[in-house]
Write a structure and sequence with these properties.
Elements lengths: L6 E2 L4 E4 L2 E8 L3 E8 L7 E3 L3 E9 L1 E6 L2 E6 L3 E4 L5 E4 L7 E9 L8 E4 L6
Antiparallel strand pairs: 1-2, 2-3, 3-4, 4-11, 5-12, 6-9, 6-11, 7-8, 7-10
């Protein structure tokens, strides 16, 4: 991974072209991240084979694509992403960051359990 894709911050956060994430807690059974998406940015359209995710929006509004269907999820609401389902989160706002808490459950939580279907940043 090159520095354009990932840079580690002093607080344990990792920067990405779309924003950043910080691992809040992890064990062999789960991983919890705080994810911040910059205005008008989005993560890759992807799926995971070994984990499910639960996203709880804490600031802003998330535009979520789940298996081709788009929904808006405001702060205070959440969505479940089952393993194997194609998904993407986007920050549709032009000025406010989107912040959500992601709880992963399953058998494996590595960043290499990502199958990218589409990516704005040329990552495969």
């Amino acid at each position: 991974m090159d520095t354009a894709e990932s840079e580690k911050g002093s607080n344990g956060s990792e920067c990405r072209p779309w924003g950043s994430f910080t691992i809040l807690d992890e064990t062999a059974y789960f991983k919890v991240k705080r994810i911040e998406v910059l205005p008008k940015k989005r993560l890759s359209y992807q799926r995971h084979s070994k984990r499910s995710e639960h996203w709880f929006v804490v600031a802003g509004t998330a535009k979520i694509t789940l298996n081709g269907t788009e929904i808006l999820v405001p702060a205070g609401e959440s969505v479940d992403i089952p393993a194997g389902h194609a998904h993407r989160v986007e920050n549709p706002h032009s000025t406010e960051p989107l912040v959500f808490i992601e709880t992963q459950t399953g058998s494996y939580f590595g960043e290499d359990d990502i199958e990218r279907l589409e990516d704005d940043f040329g990552r495969g």
